[in-house]
Every structure is written in C-alpha cells, then in structure tokens.
Sequence to fold (117 residues):
Amino acid sequence: MKKVLLLVFCILLFVGCSAKNNNKEIVFDNSFPLALAPDISWALVTDQYVTYRETYDWHSEATGHVRKGEILQVLSKSIDDDKFVWYKFETGWLPSSSVSIFSNRMKAQTEANRLKE
Fold:
C-alpha cells in the first residue's frame, strides 16, 4: 500500500513539475517611464475642481484648472509664510489640501480607481 501511494505521489510530482511550453510574452506598460522612480512623487487631485496658481500664494494668478482623479507628477514642494504646503506641477502650483501624495504612480492610480467607484 505504501509503495502504491509513493508511486502515485511520484507520478503527480513528475506531471506537476514537467516543463510546459508556455511562450507567453510579458508586455510592460511604458507609457509612464518614471512611474516607479524612487525620487519622484505623484499627486492625485482629491477636490472636484482646483485652480493652478502661478506661485505658491492664494492671491497669485490662475494658470489653469484640474479635476478630481487626475494624476500629476510633482516637480517641487514649498511652504508659504502661513506654513501652508504647496506642490508645483507643469501647469502651476496646487495647495496640499487639494491633493494626496504618493511615492509612485501605480499607488496613485490605485487610489484614483477607488475614487471612481
């Protein structure tokens, strides 16, 4: 009985470990090459509609707008005279109260998907 069980076990082990000819190609998404760069932060806009500012000041000129769910690469960070944190993006500055910051774009995208649900 033990020999039969050992034989069945060996057959199952051999069948399970046999090489399978799966030539599946792995395709990487390279649309955002800096998505996982360790020295780059990403911001997810959390307010419905936010105005970019020319400088990190509430009274500075508006340079554009962005909507909730957008993911942006953080270029810089600054603190104003009132100790309020601002983040710089390609189009201008946004206050920290309007964004959530992530260490990589994948984490920001996961959270953006949750916002859409």
